[in-house]
Amino acid sequence: MSEFTRRVIRKQYPPEFKTQAVKLPLQQGYTCGQAGQQLGLVV
């Protein structure tokens, strides 16, 4: 399979999760990286 025919599978998140993800940096002072770690998106 070439690089051009390979499909990327993206995980879909519910609206509630997205809302929480936005609130962490805006309301609680997290950096974007910290918010990603808190939500389990960044290793």
Shape estimate: elongated
What number is the mean pLDDT?
86
- Our estimate of the beta-strand percent is under 5%
Structural class category: mainly alpha
Number of discrete helical segments: 2
Q: Could you characterize the architecture of this molecule?
A:
The two termini are 28 Å apart. The longest helix is centred in the middle third of the chain and has 14 residues, at 15-28. Helix 1 (15-28) crosses helix 2. With 43 residues, the protein is mostly helical. 49% of the residues lie in helices and 0% in strands. It has helices spanning 15-28, 32-38. It contains two helices and no strands. The mean pLDDT is 86.
Give the tags:
43 residues, mainly alpha, 0% strand
Summarize the structure.
This protein has helices at residues 15-28, 32-38. The chain has 43 residues and is mainly α.
Topology record:
Elements: H1 15-28, H2 32-38
Helix pairs in contact: 1-2
